[in-house]
Design brief:
heterodimer, A: alpha/beta, 6-stranded mixed sheet, globular, B: 2 strands
């Protein structure tokens, strides 16, 4: 911390604890995400990754510890407020508004940051101040041609891309990605990896992912979560060669 | 058709609204010409309940909140108006805003509690609040208690007895219904409506986008309560009578049925549904005193067979016609 050249992390978690009954799902987790970096969070099923994401996003309140966003303590800040500060997320299980079109979903996210997010009078379907940025974001994630499709009818991979477009629409500083590749085919996840790579540098991301190929090609920093605590943190190579990590989680066949 | 449709559930409602409004606007003309004057009064009553059903559709259809105590707002509006008339302060300029304020306040206070719950609990809590209003009205011994209260007359307008004229009162009611329908249709397509709809489909998602879902729902709930309160103001004036029955849970159930018959979430459907429901009730009760035995199954059959109520039928007819043209 005395090193003046050090970059201040945009997201910092200190000693986070959460238990459900006797089960310590998050057991003193500390980690930080620097601006423009992808910090990957890996770990076996049940390690507490999604619970951790829920706490950072504000869906769950931690029992102890602190969450700092851009130096500001947001541990008790409400979920909508965190979103407005610039903390966006995607869900492990796709979370969209199924009865709106793809464009409508992204426009709804754009609207959240607009001057009058709750206008009573002007119809939204002809509101270019929402729809133009929304269309541009759909192009970014490769859904430009699918704008008019009802979101509930998109393919699984398209829904995941739509979620990312919605997250980007918030103009976030940090994006929490909870297993964005889950359930995707090889080709789809390769496309999503390329997309995330292109977004890297602009946004800081905390990426929870099981797809090791994606993790190792994207992450600047990898943390391994086992039984609610961080077993190791470091560069992809460091973590890959850590004997403890190999024993606990990865298994030799992962390489 | 050039711009992509944002709402999947929102088909164009222009023509149904025009047909409904024109039809209702012409009722007094036809009634007077055919010397069927009682239709004016009957249709006034139907439009008042249609207004209440419309207000319910905002929170039920678009907001996804099944309120089982909506009649309480009618009761509050009606009693506020009734009591003011009895106390000699029944002028529209006092009674109307007071009815809106009282029903809006009740919606605000009960909404703060009820909107923290979901699903069945929400239904039960709104039912409980509704029954609270019902029993409170029963306990108003100074104003008729259980028996209700017969009023000395209707609200005056600037001291003038304009509303005692059936035709004037008809068009006042019509203006309220048409105005609220247009307002809510506009609102449901505006930013506010889209957030309300988004929260119906996926509330957690809306919060992670930064929307305060509770606040948006509370706003809709208060607006809905106030429109039902307006219906109460009209009902007290129309019947020149107020009764605890206005706030009873059976009435809340009627309103839910009207919305379902019309097609949940289409707004104009709620108006059409209310008119259909009340016309059926009127027609059947003229046939036999055991009309409810026919009415109940008929409503159930209607809901089962139409898939989406009147709005659904109209939409499918339209698709068929459009399909026919393409072939």
């Amino acid at each position: 911390m005395t090193d003046t050249a050090a970059i201040r992390p945009v997201l910092q978690i200190e000693g986070l604890k959460k238990s459900f009954g006797a089960l310590n799902v998050t057991n003193g987790v500390s980690l930080s995400v620097n601006p423009g970096e992808i910090h990957a969070l890996i770990g076996p099923n049940g390690a507490g990754k999604t619970t951790l994401i829920h706490q950072i996003a504000g869906l769950l309140r931690p029992d102890a510890g602190h969450i700092l966003f851009d130096g500001r303590d947001i541990t008790t800040t409400s979920m909508p407020q965190r979103a407005r500060l610039g903390l966006a997320r995607t869900f492990q299980i796709t979370s969209i508004v199924p009865s709106l079109t793809a464009l409508g979903n992204v426009a709804l996210a754009v609207q959240a940051g607009a001057d009058k997010p709750l206008g009573f009078w002007t119809p939204v379907d002809v509101d270019d101040s929402l729809n133009s940025p929304a269309q541009a974001l759909l192009e970014t994630v490769g859904l430009g041609a699918r704008a008019g499709v009802i979101a509930g009818q998109l393919s699984h991979g398209e829904k995941r891309a739509l979620e990312i477009a919605m997250a980007l629409a918030l103009k976030p500083r940090v994006i929490l990605l909870d297993e964005p590749m889950a359930g995707m085919g090889h080709e789809e996840s390769a496309r999503l990896t390329d997309l995330l790579k292109s977004l890297k540098g602009t946004y800081a991301m905390l990426l929870v992912e099981h797809d090791m190929e994606a993790v190792f090609s994207l992450a600047d920093c990898v943390s391994v979560l086992v039984d609610g605590h961080v077993l190791a943190t470091g560069s992809a190579d460091m973590v890959r060669n850590d004997p403890q990590v190999r024993a606990a989680y990865l298994g030799d066949e992962a390489f | 058709m050039s711009s992509p449709l944002i709402f999947s559930t929102k088909r164009s409602s222009f023509w149904p609204v025009v047909v409904l409004c024109l039809g209702l606007a012409l009722v007094p003309v036809v009634a007077v010409l055919t010397k069927q004057g009682h239709w004016v009064s009957l249709t006034t009553q139907m439009m008042i309940l249609a207004l209440a059903a419309l207000s319910l559709d905002l929170i039920l259809g678009i907001g996804g909140l099944l309120s089982f105590g909506h009649a309480a707002f009618i009761g509050l509006g009606a009693y506020t108006t009734g009591i003011l008339i009895q106390e000699g302060k029944g002028d529209l300029l006092i009674a109307l805003p007071m009815s809106l304020v009282v029903s809006g306040l009740f919606a605000f206070v009960t909404g703060i509690v009820a909107l923290r719950t979901r699903g069945v609990v929400f239904i039960m809590i709104t039912l409980a609040f509704g029954q609270m209003a019902y029993f409170a009205a029963q306990a108003l011994y100074a104003y008729g208690g259980d028996d209700g209260l017969t009023l000395d007359g209707r609200s005056t307008v600037f001291g003038l007895k304009l509303l005692s004229n059936k035709i004037v009162f008809y068009y006042l009611t019509f203006a309220c219904l048409a105005g609220c329908l247009l307002l809510l249709q506009r609102l449901s397509r505006a930013r506010f409506g889209r957030v309300l709809l988004g929260a119906r489909d996926n509330a957690v998602r809306m919060e992670t986008l930064g929307y305060d879902v509770f606040r948006v729902r509370l706003m809709a709930y208060v607006l809905s309560g106030m429109i039902a309160g307006l219906a109460g103001f009209l009902l007290a004036n129309h019947t020149e009578f107020v009764s605890p029955a206005y706030a009873a849970w059976q009435r809340s159930g009627d309103l839910i049925f009207m919305v379902i018959i019309g097609g949940v979430g289409s707004l104009w459907g709620a108006v059409g549904g209310a008119l259909t429901y009340l016309l059926l009730e009127e027609g059947l009760s003229g046939l036999t005193e055991h009309w409810k035995v026919i009415f109940g199954p008929l409503i159930i059959l209607f809901v089962l067979l139409t898939h989406g109520g009147i709005e659904g039928v109209v939409a499918r007819l339209r698709d068929m016609m459009a399909g026919g043209r393409h072939d």
